[in-house]
Amino acid sequence: MKDKLQALVSNKAADYLEIRIEESAVTSLRFRGPILEAVNTSLQYGGCIRALVNGGWGFITFNDVNDLEKKVAQAIHQAKLVGAAGADSKLAPVPVVEDVVHVPFLEDPRQVSLAEKVELFDSYNDIILSYGKQIVSSSINYFDKYSKIYFANSEGTYILQHKLDLAGNIAAMASDGSTTQMGRVGFGSSIDFGVARNLDAKVREACGKAINLLAAPSVRGGEYTVIVDPDLAGIFAHEAFGHLSESDFVYENPQLQAVMKLGTKFGGDFLNIYDSGLTAGARGYLKYDDEGVATEKTDLIKEGVLVGRLHTRETAAKMGERPTGNARALDYSFAPICRMRTTCIAPGEASLEDMLAGVKLGLYAKGSYGGETNGEMFTFSADEGYMIRDGKLAELVRDVNLTGNVFTTLGNIDMVGKDFTTRESAGGCGKGGQVPLPTSEWAPHMRIQNVLIGGK
Question: How far lies 141's CA from each of 40, 307, 357, 437, 454, in Å?
Fold first, then answer.
Protein backbone atom coordinates (compact mmCIF):
# COMPACT_ATOMS: atom_id res chain seq x y z
CA MET A 1 0.00 0.00 0.00
CA LYS A 2 2.79 2.44 0.92
CA ASP A 3 4.59 2.18 -2.44
CA LYS A 4 1.34 2.43 -4.37
CA LEU A 5 0.11 5.54 -2.56
CA GLN A 6 3.47 7.30 -2.68
CA ALA A 7 3.67 6.70 -6.42
CA LEU A 8 0.17 8.14 -6.91
CA VAL A 9 0.81 11.34 -4.91
CA SER A 10 4.04 12.08 -6.77
CA ASN A 11 1.98 13.55 -9.63
CA LYS A 12 3.65 16.83 -10.57
CA ALA A 13 0.53 18.38 -12.11
CA ALA A 14 -0.70 19.50 -8.67
CA ASP A 15 0.84 21.90 -6.17
CA TYR A 16 -0.24 19.48 -3.44
CA LEU A 17 -1.86 16.04 -3.49
CA GLU A 18 -3.02 13.63 -0.76
CA ILE A 19 -4.76 10.25 -0.60
CA ARG A 20 -6.56 8.81 2.42
CA ILE A 21 -7.86 5.21 2.46
CA GLU A 22 -9.90 3.74 5.33
CA GLU A 23 -10.79 0.16 6.24
CA SER A 24 -13.23 -0.16 9.16
CA ALA A 25 -15.08 -2.93 10.99
CA VAL A 26 -18.17 -1.74 12.88
CA THR A 27 -20.37 -3.50 15.45
CA SER A 28 -23.54 -1.95 16.90
CA LEU A 29 -26.58 -2.99 18.88
CA ARG A 30 -29.75 -1.31 20.14
CA PHE A 31 -32.38 -2.14 22.77
CA ARG A 32 -35.72 -0.33 23.04
CA GLY A 33 -37.63 -1.51 26.09
CA PRO A 34 -37.57 -5.32 26.20
CA ILE A 35 -36.82 -5.62 22.47
CA LEU A 36 -33.37 -6.08 20.97
CA GLU A 37 -34.12 -3.95 17.91
CA ALA A 38 -30.86 -4.24 16.03
CA VAL A 39 -27.55 -6.10 15.99
CA ASN A 40 -25.26 -5.13 13.13
CA THR A 41 -21.75 -5.86 11.95
CA SER A 42 -20.33 -4.30 8.81
CA LEU A 43 -17.12 -3.71 6.91
CA GLN A 44 -16.54 -0.28 5.38
CA TYR A 45 -13.93 0.53 2.77
CA GLY A 46 -13.21 3.65 0.79
CA GLY A 47 -10.92 6.56 0.23
CA CYS A 48 -10.53 10.11 -0.97
CA ILE A 49 -8.13 12.28 -2.93
CA ARG A 50 -7.52 16.00 -2.42
CA ALA A 51 -5.59 18.07 -4.93
CA LEU A 52 -4.54 21.73 -4.69
CA VAL A 53 -3.76 23.65 -7.88
CA ASN A 54 -3.29 27.44 -8.08
CA GLY A 55 -5.24 27.94 -4.85
CA GLY A 56 -8.17 25.70 -5.80
CA TRP A 57 -9.18 22.40 -4.20
CA GLY A 58 -10.40 19.27 -5.96
CA PHE A 59 -11.90 16.39 -3.96
CA ILE A 60 -12.80 12.86 -5.11
CA THR A 61 -14.10 9.89 -3.08
CA PHE A 62 -14.07 6.24 -4.08
CA ASN A 63 -14.84 2.72 -2.87
CA ASP A 64 -12.79 0.88 -5.49
CA VAL A 65 -9.00 1.17 -5.66
CA ASN A 66 -8.94 0.31 -9.34
CA ASP A 67 -8.08 3.17 -11.71
CA LEU A 68 -6.77 5.41 -8.94
CA GLU A 69 -4.59 7.17 -11.50
CA LYS A 70 -7.79 8.27 -13.28
CA LYS A 71 -9.31 9.45 -9.99
CA VAL A 72 -6.16 11.46 -9.21
CA ALA A 73 -6.48 13.11 -12.60
CA GLN A 74 -10.13 13.95 -11.88
CA ALA A 75 -9.23 15.59 -8.56
CA ILE A 76 -6.49 17.63 -10.25
CA HIS A 77 -8.89 18.68 -13.03
CA GLN A 78 -11.42 19.87 -10.43
CA ALA A 79 -8.71 21.79 -8.60
CA LYS A 80 -7.61 23.55 -11.80
CA LEU A 81 -11.18 24.69 -12.49
CA VAL A 82 -11.58 26.04 -8.94
CA GLY A 83 -8.16 27.68 -9.03
CA ALA A 84 -8.97 29.36 -12.33
CA ALA A 85 -12.10 30.84 -10.73
CA GLY A 86 -9.96 32.82 -8.29
CA ALA A 87 -9.64 30.60 -5.21
CA ASP A 88 -6.64 31.38 -3.00
CA SER A 89 -6.15 28.41 -0.69
CA LYS A 90 -2.66 27.58 0.52
CA LEU A 91 -1.10 25.38 3.19
CA ALA A 92 1.17 26.22 6.10
CA PRO A 93 4.35 24.10 6.15
CA VAL A 94 4.55 21.10 8.50
CA PRO A 95 7.19 18.38 9.07
CA VAL A 96 7.26 15.33 6.84
CA VAL A 97 6.27 12.20 8.78
CA GLU A 98 6.58 8.44 8.30
CA ASP A 99 4.88 6.43 11.06
CA VAL A 100 2.70 3.48 11.96
CA VAL A 101 0.38 3.99 14.95
CA HIS A 102 -1.15 1.08 16.88
CA VAL A 103 -3.95 1.10 19.48
CA PRO A 104 -2.58 0.53 23.03
CA PHE A 105 -5.49 -1.74 23.98
CA LEU A 106 -6.53 -2.42 27.55
CA GLU A 107 -9.31 -4.69 26.28
CA ASP A 108 -9.81 -5.13 22.55
CA PRO A 109 -13.53 -5.24 21.64
CA ARG A 110 -12.68 -7.45 18.67
CA GLN A 111 -11.80 -10.17 21.18
CA VAL A 112 -15.27 -9.96 22.78
CA SER A 113 -17.84 -12.03 20.92
CA LEU A 114 -21.03 -10.46 19.61
CA ALA A 115 -23.03 -12.85 21.81
CA GLU A 116 -21.14 -11.68 24.91
CA LYS A 117 -21.77 -8.03 24.03
CA VAL A 118 -25.50 -8.69 23.61
CA GLU A 119 -25.58 -10.58 26.92
CA LEU A 120 -23.82 -7.76 28.75
CA PHE A 121 -26.19 -5.04 27.56
CA ASP A 122 -29.19 -7.30 28.02
CA SER A 123 -28.20 -7.56 31.70
CA TYR A 124 -28.25 -3.76 32.00
CA ASN A 125 -31.61 -3.70 30.28
CA ASP A 126 -32.96 -6.24 32.80
CA ILE A 127 -31.81 -3.99 35.68
CA ILE A 128 -33.77 -1.07 34.24
CA LEU A 129 -36.96 -2.93 33.37
CA SER A 130 -37.14 -4.70 36.74
CA TYR A 131 -36.30 -1.62 38.82
CA GLY A 132 -39.87 -0.57 39.63
CA LYS A 133 -43.27 0.17 38.14
CA GLN A 134 -42.46 3.84 37.52
CA ILE A 135 -39.75 2.79 35.06
CA VAL A 136 -41.70 2.48 31.84
CA SER A 137 -39.01 1.90 29.23
CA SER A 138 -35.32 1.72 28.41
CA SER A 139 -32.99 2.70 25.61
CA ILE A 140 -29.53 1.21 25.07
CA ASN A 141 -27.16 1.95 22.22
CA TYR A 142 -23.63 0.60 21.75
CA PHE A 143 -21.08 0.62 18.92
CA ASP A 144 -17.40 -0.02 18.31
CA LYS A 145 -15.44 0.88 15.19
CA TYR A 146 -11.94 -0.34 14.47
CA SER A 147 -10.19 1.39 11.57
CA LYS A 148 -6.99 1.31 9.59
CA ILE A 149 -6.35 4.67 7.94
CA TYR A 150 -3.65 5.07 5.28
CA PHE A 151 -2.48 8.60 4.46
CA ALA A 152 0.09 9.79 1.95
CA ASN A 153 0.82 13.22 0.50
CA SER A 154 3.06 14.73 -2.16
CA GLU A 155 5.37 16.25 0.46
CA GLY A 156 6.57 12.78 1.48
CA THR A 157 4.37 12.03 4.51
CA TYR A 158 3.11 8.46 4.88
CA ILE A 159 1.13 7.34 7.97
CA LEU A 160 -0.82 4.21 8.81
CA GLN A 161 -3.01 4.77 11.88
CA HIS A 162 -4.95 2.03 13.63
CA LYS A 163 -7.87 3.58 15.56
CA LEU A 164 -10.65 2.46 17.87
CA ASP A 165 -13.79 4.42 18.68
CA LEU A 166 -16.18 2.79 21.15
CA ALA A 167 -19.14 4.32 22.96
CA GLY A 168 -22.60 3.71 24.34
CA ASN A 169 -25.54 5.19 26.18
CA ILE A 170 -27.88 3.45 28.64
CA ALA A 171 -31.09 5.28 29.54
CA ALA A 172 -33.99 4.59 31.91
CA MET A 173 -37.33 6.35 31.37
CA ALA A 174 -39.70 6.93 34.29
CA SER A 175 -43.27 8.22 34.12
CA ASP A 176 -46.06 9.09 36.54
CA GLY A 177 -48.67 9.35 33.78
CA SER A 178 -48.25 13.06 33.16
CA THR A 179 -44.49 13.57 33.22
CA THR A 180 -41.60 11.55 31.83
CA GLN A 181 -38.05 11.83 33.15
CA MET A 182 -34.79 10.13 32.22
CA GLY A 183 -31.63 8.90 33.89
CA ARG A 184 -28.61 8.02 31.77
CA VAL A 185 -25.21 6.32 31.84
CA GLY A 186 -22.74 7.12 29.08
CA PHE A 187 -19.31 5.68 28.33
CA GLY A 188 -16.65 5.77 25.64
CA SER A 189 -13.02 4.97 24.92
CA SER A 190 -10.37 4.76 22.23
CA ILE A 191 -8.51 1.84 23.87
CA ASP A 192 -10.77 -0.23 26.14
CA PHE A 193 -13.96 -2.30 25.95
CA GLY A 194 -13.72 -2.51 29.74
CA VAL A 195 -15.46 0.87 30.10
CA ALA A 196 -18.67 -0.95 29.12
CA ARG A 197 -18.36 -3.46 31.95
CA ASN A 198 -19.38 -3.28 35.64
CA LEU A 199 -21.96 -0.53 35.16
CA ASP A 200 -24.69 -2.17 37.27
CA ALA A 201 -24.49 0.34 40.12
CA LYS A 202 -24.51 3.31 37.73
CA VAL A 203 -27.52 1.89 35.89
CA ARG A 204 -29.44 1.53 39.15
CA GLU A 205 -28.45 5.08 40.09
CA ALA A 206 -29.82 6.31 36.74
CA CYS A 207 -33.11 4.53 37.42
CA GLY A 208 -33.36 6.14 40.84
CA LYS A 209 -32.61 9.57 39.42
CA ALA A 210 -35.33 9.25 36.77
CA ILE A 211 -37.90 8.33 39.43
CA ASN A 212 -36.79 11.07 41.83
CA LEU A 213 -37.07 13.70 39.11
CA LEU A 214 -40.78 12.85 38.68
CA ALA A 215 -41.52 14.29 42.10
CA ALA A 216 -39.06 17.19 41.88
CA PRO A 217 -40.44 20.71 41.30
CA SER A 218 -39.32 22.83 38.37
CA VAL A 219 -36.65 25.32 39.28
CA ARG A 220 -37.87 28.87 39.73
CA GLY A 221 -36.42 31.02 36.95
CA GLY A 222 -34.09 33.85 37.79
CA GLU A 223 -30.46 34.85 38.17
CA TYR A 224 -28.34 32.64 40.42
CA THR A 225 -24.85 31.80 41.49
CA VAL A 226 -24.46 28.41 39.80
CA ILE A 227 -22.04 25.58 40.42
CA VAL A 228 -21.78 23.29 37.39
CA ASP A 229 -20.49 19.74 37.73
CA PRO A 230 -17.60 18.43 35.54
CA ASP A 231 -20.00 17.05 32.90
CA LEU A 232 -21.73 20.37 32.34
CA ALA A 233 -18.48 22.36 32.64
CA GLY A 234 -16.97 20.19 29.90
CA ILE A 235 -19.97 20.72 27.65
CA PHE A 236 -19.66 24.48 28.21
CA ALA A 237 -15.98 24.34 27.25
CA HIS A 238 -16.77 22.44 24.04
CA GLU A 239 -20.03 23.95 22.84
CA ALA A 240 -19.91 27.53 24.06
CA PHE A 241 -16.19 28.28 23.77
CA GLY A 242 -14.52 25.50 21.79
CA HIS A 243 -16.42 26.10 18.56
CA LEU A 244 -15.50 29.79 18.69
CA SER A 245 -11.86 28.68 18.87
CA GLU A 246 -12.08 26.77 15.59
CA SER A 247 -10.24 29.14 13.29
CA ASP A 248 -12.42 28.67 10.21
CA PHE A 249 -15.25 30.31 12.19
CA VAL A 250 -12.91 33.14 13.19
CA TYR A 251 -11.41 33.66 9.72
CA GLU A 252 -14.83 33.86 8.06
CA ASN A 253 -16.32 36.31 10.61
CA PRO A 254 -14.70 39.77 10.94
CA GLN A 255 -16.83 40.57 13.99
CA LEU A 256 -15.61 37.40 15.73
CA GLN A 257 -12.02 38.26 14.75
CA ALA A 258 -12.33 41.49 16.70
CA VAL A 259 -13.74 39.69 19.76
CA MET A 260 -11.37 36.70 19.60
CA LYS A 261 -8.20 38.77 19.37
CA LEU A 262 -5.20 37.00 20.86
CA GLY A 263 -4.15 38.64 24.11
CA THR A 264 -7.71 39.52 25.15
CA LYS A 265 -8.48 38.96 28.84
CA PHE A 266 -11.59 36.79 29.19
CA GLY A 267 -11.45 35.44 32.74
CA GLY A 268 -9.62 35.20 36.05
CA ASP A 269 -5.98 34.14 36.39
CA PHE A 270 -7.19 30.71 37.57
CA LEU A 271 -9.00 29.97 34.26
CA ASN A 272 -7.16 27.74 31.77
CA ILE A 273 -8.79 26.04 28.75
CA TYR A 274 -7.03 23.84 26.21
CA ASP A 275 -7.72 21.32 23.46
CA SER A 276 -5.56 18.21 23.12
CA GLY A 277 -5.14 15.26 20.81
CA LEU A 278 -2.76 13.57 23.26
CA THR A 279 -5.38 12.26 25.72
CA ALA A 280 -4.88 8.50 25.29
CA GLY A 281 -8.10 6.63 26.03
CA ALA A 282 -10.33 9.59 25.22
CA ARG A 283 -12.57 9.45 22.18
CA GLY A 284 -10.88 12.69 21.11
CA TYR A 285 -7.44 11.06 21.04
CA LEU A 286 -5.50 10.93 17.78
CA LYS A 287 -1.75 11.02 17.19
CA TYR A 288 -2.11 12.58 13.73
CA ASP A 289 -4.99 14.51 12.24
CA ASP A 290 -6.46 13.84 8.80
CA GLU A 291 -3.85 16.04 7.11
CA GLY A 292 -1.03 13.97 8.61
CA VAL A 293 -0.14 16.67 11.15
CA ALA A 294 0.97 15.59 14.63
CA THR A 295 -1.53 16.62 17.29
CA GLU A 296 -0.62 18.49 20.44
CA LYS A 297 -1.97 20.21 23.52
CA THR A 298 -3.11 23.61 22.29
CA ASP A 299 -3.63 26.27 24.96
CA LEU A 300 -6.67 28.43 24.21
CA ILE A 301 -7.06 30.44 27.42
CA LYS A 302 -4.08 30.65 29.77
CA GLU A 303 -4.43 32.46 33.10
CA GLY A 304 -7.59 34.09 31.76
CA VAL A 305 -6.02 35.37 28.53
CA LEU A 306 -6.81 34.16 24.99
CA VAL A 307 -3.50 32.75 23.74
CA GLY A 308 -4.39 30.37 20.91
CA ARG A 309 -6.92 28.81 18.57
CA LEU A 310 -7.37 25.60 16.60
CA HIS A 311 -6.01 25.29 13.07
CA THR A 312 -5.86 23.22 9.95
CA ARG A 313 -2.95 23.79 7.59
CA GLU A 314 -5.14 26.03 5.44
CA THR A 315 -6.52 28.23 8.23
CA ALA A 316 -3.04 28.55 9.73
CA ALA A 317 -1.73 29.83 6.40
CA LYS A 318 -4.62 32.26 6.00
CA MET A 319 -4.16 33.72 9.48
CA GLY A 320 -0.36 33.61 9.61
CA GLU A 321 -0.39 31.24 12.57
CA ARG A 322 0.79 27.71 13.34
CA PRO A 323 -1.02 24.44 12.44
CA THR A 324 -2.25 22.64 15.57
CA GLY A 325 -3.34 19.24 14.20
CA ASN A 326 -7.09 19.95 14.24
CA ALA A 327 -7.98 18.94 10.67
CA ARG A 328 -10.50 16.12 11.05
CA ALA A 329 -12.93 14.28 8.80
CA LEU A 330 -15.80 12.07 9.89
CA ASP A 331 -14.71 9.46 7.35
CA TYR A 332 -13.26 9.13 3.85
CA SER A 333 -16.34 10.67 2.22
CA PHE A 334 -15.49 14.10 3.68
CA ALA A 335 -12.60 16.51 3.34
CA PRO A 336 -11.08 17.47 6.71
CA ILE A 337 -12.18 20.69 8.40
CA CYS A 338 -11.18 22.38 11.65
CA ARG A 339 -12.57 20.34 14.59
CA MET A 340 -11.93 19.89 18.30
CA ARG A 341 -10.33 16.81 19.88
CA THR A 342 -10.49 16.68 23.71
CA THR A 343 -11.45 20.10 25.07
CA CYS A 344 -10.56 20.69 28.71
CA ILE A 345 -10.90 23.18 31.53
CA ALA A 346 -7.73 22.67 33.55
CA PRO A 347 -8.10 22.00 37.30
CA GLY A 348 -8.00 24.87 39.75
CA GLU A 349 -7.57 24.89 43.52
CA ALA A 350 -11.10 25.01 44.93
CA SER A 351 -13.07 22.15 46.48
CA LEU A 352 -16.81 21.74 46.08
CA GLU A 353 -17.15 22.74 49.72
CA ASP A 354 -15.23 25.96 48.97
CA MET A 355 -17.65 26.74 46.16
CA LEU A 356 -20.74 26.08 48.26
CA ALA A 357 -19.51 28.23 51.14
CA GLY A 358 -20.97 31.71 51.11
CA VAL A 359 -23.72 30.96 48.57
CA LYS A 360 -26.90 32.02 50.30
CA LEU A 361 -29.20 31.05 47.42
CA GLY A 362 -27.87 29.32 44.35
CA LEU A 363 -28.10 26.29 42.11
CA TYR A 364 -25.99 23.17 41.58
CA ALA A 365 -26.45 21.98 37.97
CA LYS A 366 -25.46 18.41 37.06
CA GLY A 367 -25.06 16.67 33.74
CA SER A 368 -26.08 17.80 30.28
CA TYR A 369 -29.38 16.97 28.64
CA GLY A 370 -28.61 18.92 25.48
CA GLY A 371 -28.42 22.50 24.31
CA GLU A 372 -27.61 24.84 21.48
CA THR A 373 -25.33 27.73 20.65
CA ASN A 374 -25.78 30.70 18.34
CA GLY A 375 -22.54 32.62 18.00
CA GLU A 376 -21.74 34.05 21.43
CA MET A 377 -25.04 32.92 22.97
CA PHE A 378 -25.75 29.53 24.49
CA THR A 379 -28.56 27.58 26.15
CA PHE A 380 -27.86 24.30 27.98
CA SER A 381 -30.23 21.96 29.77
CA ALA A 382 -28.91 20.18 32.85
CA ASP A 383 -29.90 16.60 33.67
CA GLU A 384 -30.82 17.67 37.20
CA GLY A 385 -30.28 20.44 39.71
CA TYR A 386 -30.14 21.01 43.44
CA MET A 387 -30.88 24.28 45.15
CA ILE A 388 -28.09 25.69 47.30
CA ARG A 389 -29.33 27.25 50.52
CA ASP A 390 -26.99 28.85 53.06
CA GLY A 391 -23.95 27.06 51.67
CA LYS A 392 -25.50 23.58 51.58
CA LEU A 393 -27.11 21.40 48.91
CA ALA A 394 -30.88 21.34 49.36
CA GLU A 395 -33.85 20.03 47.36
CA LEU A 396 -33.74 18.40 43.94
CA VAL A 397 -35.17 20.48 41.06
CA ARG A 398 -35.72 19.79 37.38
CA ASP A 399 -36.16 21.67 34.07
CA VAL A 400 -32.89 23.54 34.64
CA ASN A 401 -31.86 25.63 31.61
CA LEU A 402 -28.78 27.86 31.62
CA THR A 403 -28.66 30.78 29.17
CA GLY A 404 -26.03 33.41 28.56
CA ASN A 405 -23.26 35.03 26.58
CA VAL A 406 -20.08 32.95 26.54
CA PHE A 407 -17.73 35.90 27.04
CA THR A 408 -19.77 37.36 29.90
CA THR A 409 -19.95 33.90 31.45
CA LEU A 410 -16.17 33.39 31.21
CA GLY A 411 -15.73 36.64 33.13
CA ASN A 412 -18.25 35.52 35.75
CA ILE A 413 -16.42 32.28 36.59
CA ASP A 414 -15.00 32.94 40.03
CA MET A 415 -13.87 29.47 41.16
CA VAL A 416 -12.50 26.39 39.36
CA GLY A 417 -12.37 23.04 41.14
CA LYS A 418 -9.39 20.79 41.71
CA ASP A 419 -11.45 17.64 40.97
CA PHE A 420 -10.58 17.33 37.25
CA THR A 421 -12.80 14.60 35.75
CA THR A 422 -12.46 12.66 32.51
CA ARG A 423 -15.82 12.58 30.73
CA GLU A 424 -16.64 10.11 27.95
CA SER A 425 -20.02 9.40 26.41
CA ALA A 426 -21.75 8.39 23.21
CA GLY A 427 -22.76 10.81 20.51
CA GLY A 428 -20.32 13.29 19.07
CA CYS A 429 -19.78 16.73 17.64
CA GLY A 430 -21.56 18.02 14.54
CA LYS A 431 -20.25 20.58 12.07
CA GLY A 432 -20.38 21.05 8.33
CA GLY A 433 -22.63 18.03 7.87
CA GLN A 434 -20.07 15.77 9.57
CA VAL A 435 -21.72 14.17 12.61
CA PRO A 436 -21.11 12.45 14.99
CA LEU A 437 -17.35 13.08 15.14
CA PRO A 438 -15.82 11.56 18.31
CA THR A 439 -14.69 14.23 20.77
CA SER A 440 -14.23 14.43 24.53
CA GLU A 441 -14.80 17.11 27.18
CA TRP A 442 -12.93 17.00 30.49
CA ALA A 443 -13.29 19.48 33.34
CA PRO A 444 -13.62 20.03 37.10
CA HIS A 445 -16.48 21.68 38.99
CA MET A 446 -16.83 25.39 38.28
CA ARG A 447 -18.69 28.26 39.99
CA ILE A 448 -20.27 31.04 37.93
CA GLN A 449 -21.90 34.23 39.17
CA ASN A 450 -25.07 35.81 37.74
CA VAL A 451 -26.28 32.95 35.54
CA LEU A 452 -29.74 33.31 34.01
CA ILE A 453 -31.79 30.18 34.75
CA GLY A 454 -34.96 29.48 32.83
CA GLY A 455 -37.59 27.53 34.72
CA LYS A 456 -40.99 27.91 36.28
Answer: 12, 39, 40, 16, 31
Please report, for residues 8, 87, 109, 130, 446, the alpha-carbon distance to residue 56 in angstroms, rounded to integers and kept in the order given: 19, 5, 42, 60, 45
Task: Work out the burial of residue 96: count CB atoms within 10 Å of its CB; fewer than 13 is exposed, 13-18 middle, 19 or more buried.
Answer: exposed
Question: Domains of the chain (ranges plus CATH)?
Answer: 2-215 (3.30.2290.10), 222-454 (no CATH)
Do 168 and 426 contact (CB within 8 A), yes or no?
yes
C-alpha dihedral sign at 372, 376, 377, 383: positive
- Cis bond upstream, residue 436 (ω within 30): yes
pLDDT tens by residue, 161-195: 999 999 999 999 999 999 999 999 999 999 999 99
74 within 8 A of 67, measured Cβ to Cβ: no
Q: Cβ–Cβ contacts within 10 Å for residue 263, how many?
A: 7
* DSSP H/E element including 352: helix 352-356
Number of neighbouring beta carbons within 10 Å of residue 26: 15
pTM above 0.70, yes or no: yes
